[in-house]
């Protein structure tokens, strides 16, 4: 009866000037488990929350190395994320084959955004359902970008995407003034705390998060689990009682936030609120 | 030469050059790179053109010198113009340095030789970026290398032995120019296609300058120059 | 128009010699650093050795542009391998990849003469020797390039490797200690430099063993 008439394909405008399919793709990003990135002058740290669909399953990989100087963290459809990571890897290889130097991060991000944009303008295509935090280093310094399915991209000092990322964002917004001069260790600590924020009460352990670092003199790499656990213990981040309660969530949605899962969102899945937001407004 | 990529028939390939430029000589010096070339363009053994510029700045950090087919060189300049324009359009604080441009040229030259459709040149690429001096060369079949001094064509036979004797790491600008002039003078005397109108070009961290053309002082009064056949017995 | 120019050739020979020797727990790979064309020396400081993986090194002589293209191709393929498998390629795997890469251009070959040296999965030294179109063999030692006609018989005489026809198959690795192998390599290059005009200037020796990779250089005659 009240079926949306304007969302049957990506290329159809709504009278309000919106592209619903593109907005739905942006929703997919919000439903994936959280990914966090933050940057100093010399380093970028990526972090993500690992969720499993079942006790019996392992979690999906959400941070990918693209090249020595670039890495990504994804939220949303991991399958789409893998496709885009593969594209980015091959662009990096081609560039260094021609020029024997690393591809500037910003240029890769634009290429990636252009690729996503094409999917918003072809009736036979589907937008990528994944958001990417791209961390990289080039001659103009350290960079952190966010690429979304709409084809938009933004550069950030710090950002978080995915389910319950609002809590992490709130933490980052409180702290980002100091990030530019932060040391590598301080960045990692802040990444861990921001990750904990988005866990919403669940205990922060190395098994539920992945951390990756890129910086001057340090090629992109994912920290192994022991290192992460040591850092968690060292920073004494886990004080279960101290964890501030974030926005209350309906019980059933607590666990359903695995990637692709029908899932929990920072706003408690209030369709009305998010429908009002334009795609770029996250 | 007009050429299309992909399959081309014989009439569209460079099988031999038409108008050619002779040697280019280049050296590293204290603050950057110095390059020298004459301005002649030969049509076979005819001196067809006398004012051809074979040293060109490429972008902010590089300098290109070429010998061989002039039309192919000018085609390469068009490729590089496009490359640098595209690079500048990003306007993101990143730029292609001499290493990147040299590598790009290496791939272009080698690709064309793979299609049996070479760009008939020997190129020298020099430059400075972030305090790093760079001097390399590539030829029409893709052979490429870096060195402290390089030369194309007859310069390899006549100039490099001089450079191997006299070049050193901390040559001043004046010493460098003197050394290049010495090389160019030998080439002028012994390379029949060399002409006495020479350009020298400099690139440092501050950028590239191509100096106005000049001619070398020569001395032709040596007995062997005046009467080269004296002592060579013959009917004439 | 009468023919004034020699026909254009897509190939050149830039000379150079390569040697690799496998020991029980090490591998030595060496090549000179001269690059020539005809009677010209283009440069005296050009490395013909490329590290393709942690425990895999290739030395190549022949046509420099082809060699460079081959090295770049293999490095790119190795990067892809690392992305997909999250580990370094083993030396025998790289050996097969090199063969395939060369054979792929069977009818417009890379004019490249390679020896591949490294450590296999057991940590034993291994050497693979190739022709330009990709046929290859695992051996205990090998020499390729312009000086190989002088070097190979020298190595045959010094290393006396067991015949590959023997049954049961005998291990091909050389009985020498690492230091002896390095010395032998230096000697064969000094000797080859005496007679081969395409070998000289400088010798680059790469040594792979359990503790990692190490490089040594030695000056050779420059005439």
TrEMBL record, chain A:
InterPro entries referenced in this protein's UniProt entry, alphabetically: Ntn_hydrolases_N, Proteasome_alpha, Proteasome_alpha-type, Proteasome_alpha1, Proteasome_asu_N, Proteasome_sua/b
PROSITE patterns assigned to the protein according to its UniProt record, in alphabetical order: PROTEASOME_ALPHA_1 (PS00388), PROTEASOME_ALPHA_2 (PS51475)
Primary location recorded for the protein, binned into one broad class: cytoplasm
Domain Proteasome alpha-type subunits: 6-28
GO biological process: ubiquitin-dependent protein catabolic process
Region (Disordered) residue spans: 239-282
Gene Ontology cellular-component annotations: cytoplasm; nucleus; proteasome core complex, alpha-subunit complex
Places the protein is found: Cytoplasm; Nucleus
Keywords from the named record: Cytoplasm, Nucleus, Proteasome
Sequence ranges of Low complexity compositional bias: 271-282
Function: The proteasome is a multicatalytic proteinase complex which is characterized by its ability to cleave peptides with Arg, Phe, Tyr, Leu, and Glu adjacent to the leaving group at neutral or slightly basic pH.
Family listed: Belongs to the peptidase T1A family.
Quaternary organization: The 20S proteasome core is composed of 28 subunits that are arranged in four stacked rings, resulting in a barrel-shaped structure. The two end rings are each formed by seven alpha subunits, and the two central rings are each formed by seven beta subunits. Component of the 20S core complex of the 26S proteasome. The 26S proteasome is composed of a core protease (CP), known as the 20S proteasome, capped at one or both ends by the 19S regulatory particle (RP/PA700). The 20S proteasome core is composed of 28 subunits that are arranged in four stacked rings, resulting in a barrel-shaped structure. The two end rings are each formed by seven alpha subunits, and the two central rings are each formed by seven beta subunits. The catalytic chamber with the active sites is on the inside of the barrel.
Name assigned to this protein: Proteasome subunit alpha type
Organism: Crotalaria pallida (Smooth rattlebox)
Automatic annotation (TrEMBL), chain B:
Pfam families for the chain: Proteasome
GO cellular component: cytoplasm; nucleus; proteasome core complex, beta-subunit complex
Keyword Cytoplasm: yes
UniProt xrefs under SUPFAM superfamilies: N-terminal nucleophile aminohydrolases (Ntn hydrolases) (SSF56235)
Compartments where found: Cytoplasm; Nucleus
Keywords assigned: Cytoplasm, Nucleus, Proteasome
GO biological process: proteolysis involved in protein catabolic process
CDD domains (UniProt xref): proteasome_beta_type_4
Alphabetized InterPro entries for the sequence: Ntn_hydrolases_N (IPR029055), Proteasome_alpha (IPR050115), Proteasome_beta4 (IPR016295), Proteasome_bsu_CS (IPR016050), Proteasome_sua/b (IPR001353), Proteasome_suB-type (IPR023333)
Subunit structure: Component of the 20S core complex of the 26S proteasome. The 26S proteasome is composed of a core protease (CP), known as the 20S proteasome, capped at one or both ends by the 19S regulatory particle (RP/PA700). The 20S proteasome core is composed of 28 subunits that are arranged in four stacked rings, resulting in a barrel-shaped structure. The two end rings are each formed by seven alpha subunits, and the two central rings are each formed by seven beta subunits. The catalytic chamber with the active sites is on the inside of the barrel.
Function field: Non-catalytic component of the proteasome.
Family: Belongs to the peptidase T1B family.
Stated name of the protein: Proteasome subunit beta
Species name: Crotalaria pallida
Lineage: Eukaryota, Viridiplantae, Streptophyta, Embryophyta, Tracheophyta
UniProtKB/TrEMBL annotation, chain C:
Pfam families the record matches: Proteasome
Gene Ontology CC terms, in alphabetical order: cytoplasm; nucleus; proteasome core complex
Domain of life according to the entry: Eukaryota
Keyword field: Cytoplasm, Nucleus, Proteasome
UniProt-listed InterPro entries: Ntn_hydrolases_N (IPR029055), Proteasome_bsu_CS (IPR016050), Proteasome_sua/b (IPR001353), Proteasome_suB-type (IPR023333)
Entry's Gene Ontology BP terms: proteolysis involved in protein catabolic process
Location(s) in or outside the cell: Cytoplasm; Nucleus
Family as reported in the entry's similarity comment: Belongs to the peptidase T1B family.
Job of this protein: Non-catalytic component of the proteasome, a multicatalytic proteinase complex which is characterized by its ability to cleave peptides with Arg, Phe, Tyr, Leu, and Glu adjacent to the leaving group at neutral or slightly basic pH. The proteasome has an ATP-dependent proteolytic activity. Component of the proteasome, a multicatalytic proteinase complex which is characterized by its ability to cleave peptides with Arg, Phe, Tyr, Leu, and Glu adjacent to the leaving group at neutral or slightly basic pH. The proteasome has an ATP-dependent proteolytic activity.
Known partners and oligomeric status: Component of the proteasome complex.
Protein name: Proteasome subunit beta
